[in-house]
Amino acid sequence: MATPSGVEASNTRDRILDAAVEVIAERGYSAAGVQEIIDRAGTSKGSFYFHFPSKETMTMALLEQMSNRLIKRVQEAVQGEPTPLHRVAAGIEFLLATFSRHRKVAQVLLVNLMGHGRTIDRRFLPIREKLSELIKGELDAAVAQGQIECQDTSLVAAVWVGALHEVIMRWLLTGQPSPLSGVAPELRSTLLRSVGVDPAMFQPLQRRA
Amino acid sequence: MATPSGVEASNTRDRILDAAVEVIAERGYSAAGVQEIIDRAGTSKGSFYFHFPSKETMTMALLEQMSNRLIKRVQEAVQGEPTPLHRVAAGIEFLLATFSRHRKVAQVLLVNLMGHGRTIDRRFLPIREKLSELIKGELDAAVAQGQIECQDTSLVAAVWVGALHEVIMRWLLTGQPSPLSGVAPELRSTLLRSVGVDPAMFQPLQRRA
Amino acid sequence: MATPSGVEASNTRDRILDAAVEVIAERGYSAAGVQEIIDRAGTSKGSFYFHFPSKETMTMALLEQMSNRLIKRVQEAVQGEPTPLHRVAAGIEFLLATFSRHRKVAQVLLVNLMGHGRTIDRRFLPIREKLSELIKGELDAAVAQGQIECQDTSLVAAVWVGALHEVIMRWLLTGQPSPLSGVAPELRSTLLRSVGVDPAMFQPLQRRA
Amino acid sequence: MATPSGVEASNTRDRILDAAVEVIAERGYSAAGVQEIIDRAGTSKGSFYFHFPSKETMTMALLEQMSNRLIKRVQEAVQGEPTPLHRVAAGIEFLLATFSRHRKVAQVLLVNLMGHGRTIDRRFLPIREKLSELIKGELDAAVAQGQIECQDTSLVAAVWVGALHEVIMRWLLTGQPSPLSGVAPELRSTLLRSVGVDPAMFQPLQRRA
DNA sequence: AATGAATGAGCTTTCATTCAT
DNA sequence: AATGAATGAAAGCTCATTCAT
């Protein structure tokens, strides 16, 4: 499953987006040529520009689609958890598992769409911003419920997102750890400690892979 | 002080590197044209290629110079501290202060030189790798001295580097917090907690800016 | 008639090839810029590189096209002749007449595409190689039929090709003789003598042009 | 002995010329950069332009030096021969032997300095022109002495030069025949026949290699 | 005589985008 | 909706030549 959607797309627009993920993951944004994208998508220049006004627009559409889909899935995956802290922990585990299965999506989302001039920088934040907000929301809830002490949840959320990002990036560039999800327990412990929770006291629910 | 060296360079090679930091910070690596770099450096195409065999080589030289210089300064800044944990804490504070003063260096180092094909990816890691190693070294020493409990210091180092990276990136893209070094106390607390140290028990030395 | 095809080409690819012959003939291979070629062809840079992957590839395509076309025409022109020796003689006359009418093709084929690094050198040989083989074939047939004595036909073919080349090159550079085909009778006599045939005994058929 | 002079030159000017032969033989005229020439000559840009006003001028000096030297040596080598025809035959043999020992000189003289815009074309002829004149002179003498019949000696000279050129070029590009001078007897026979002389009736003097 | 950093016009090649079909 | 030839600005890079030392 290397496509953002996870299935072979049947309409041209989605085939273009799927091809774009592949090419951008392999070459980086700037070196990803429209020609190669349409070659892999099995369509034509004209078709590309019929569906998207520009390469940049298409990239932003790609970004938005991937971000939204990912966030939605995280939220779904986390619904059954009993407490805010359980939800964040589960969310982090889910993210590691998901990126592990969609290496190229991870690469594009976390590595290849950065630093290409302001326009994309700004639009790139959403995934981290939304993740941050998700985490901050749960942390705030945890504070409200007395699960953790009062603290700068905004900063903590940033720390957690940065930690996740770093761990995944290392995996992308070095292949370690293999599998990626192997770090989940230790990472969860470290992050829980960072908000003053004793990992030993925190019993996660049993969940599927 | 926008130049990597912090002073107006007088030889051509350094003027090119200084100009490159500026242009790459403003436009990103791919969009940073040799033409604009030499325009700002006040030199010529031929001169550029007399000093560097290619744009890529020049970028790697830039990266190496900046990384080495930064790491060296961190090490110097941290020498006087009494314990390993004091040293990491001081190092983080120093990094925030330094990047705060060299915004463009931070941007280039942490944002703009990623995702441009393997060659630069691989060479890009050093700054994070070295930072990671520095931190891991101190954490290991802290474990050895009984300052903190035994744990996966490699993962913790990654978490700390990721946290730093995230905090700085947010500042680069949003300007918050202002000044950047304002987060230092809270960040230190969060990171110390993550290794099981009570921030309240940890008394930093008094230090200059 | 300065175009390889002899007629104004209507498709872009052929217009590029025709323009290339002109420019290469005037300036030599290295000094023949893609810019000037496309200017004369009335097309654009992008168009050039849409039709050919590189300037070198295009030059080789040009070479191949011209060689094949020329060889084919020589073979056709020579079909009606009664004996091997008549065929070679007619072929030489035909070549002189053809180059006489296509000065620039001659220049490119025989002068301008030599000595530019192995790649083109190797591909350049075909026209001489093929001509050599054509001549050697007829000489071998002449030996088999007892028209001439047994001898190193391979060397003789080389001598004849060299003689032709030299005569044409002088004409290209000095304009002498005018017309080029004026040397045909004397050249034929000299070459026939070189294989031991008395030119006076050799009665060519009557032919056009 | 790969240098035009046959010995390691001791003054800068000659070291440049020697290096130029090497580089031009290896890369062709256009691709032979001044930088590589001075690198091999062990001197500097400034030095090059102190000794020669331009690359082109230097090339012409090279050409002239090589041509004059070669022609002079041919004339010396041929002095002892009894008849005009003996002299041409000896000259051809000497040329083959000489080029055989100075492969790069042959390459530069016969292959690499052709087809690079009018200026060099014109200056390039001398070697062939002078060779032609040498041969024509002897042929005229042979006619005057009744050694051969009256004929267009100018054309015959061209044919002979072309034959030589072709044979040497094939050797340069294919390495055949090895050694080059192996073709001398057959070539002499063919050329003698081309002026109506029975090779069997022609007894060359004994000479050193 | 010699050095080598500097120059800048020019090179081949790329690529997002357009448009007639 | 789709095609693909065409466009042209701009890219990275080369190289003969100059000049202060």
Q: What is the topological layout?
A:
The structure is a homotetramer of 209-residue chains.
Chain A: H1 12-27, H2 34-41, H3 45-51, H4 55-78, H5 84-101, H6 103-112, H7 118-144, H8 153-174, H9 184-194
Chain A binds a DNA duplex (21 and 21 nucleotides) through helix 3.
Structure overview:
4 copies of one chain form a homotetramer. With 209 residues, chain A is an all-alpha fold. Chain A has 2 domains: 52 residues, Orthogonal Bundle (Arc Repressor Mutant, subunit A); 144 residues, Tetracycline Repressor, domain 2, CATH 1.10.357.10. Helix content of chain A is 68%, strand content 0%. Chain A contains 9 helices and no strands. Chains in contact: A-B, C-D. Chain A binds a DNA duplex (21 and 21 nucleotides) through helix 3.
Major sheet description of chain A = none
Question: Could you give the order of the helices and strands of chain A?
Answer: HHHHHHHHH
Integer count of domains of chain A? 2
Q: So, CATH architecture of the largest domain in chain A? A: Orthogonal Bundle
Radius of gyration of chain A: 18 Å
Number of strands of chain A: 0
Query: Kindly state the mean pLDDT of chain A as a whole number?
Result: 89
CATH class of the largest domain in chain A: Mainly Alpha
CATH-derived topology of the largest domain in chain A: Tetracycline Repressor, domain 2
Shape of chain A: elongated
β-sheet strand percentage of chain A = under 5%
User: What is the multimeric organization of the chains shown?
Assistant: homotetramer
Give start-end ranges of low-pLDDT stretches of chain A. none
Please state the structural category of chain A. Answer: mainly alpha
Amino-to-carboxy terminus distance of chain A: 16 Å
Tell me the number of helical segments of chain A per DSSP (H or I, 4 or more residues long): 9
CATH superfamily of the largest domain in chain A: Tetracycline Repressor, domain 2
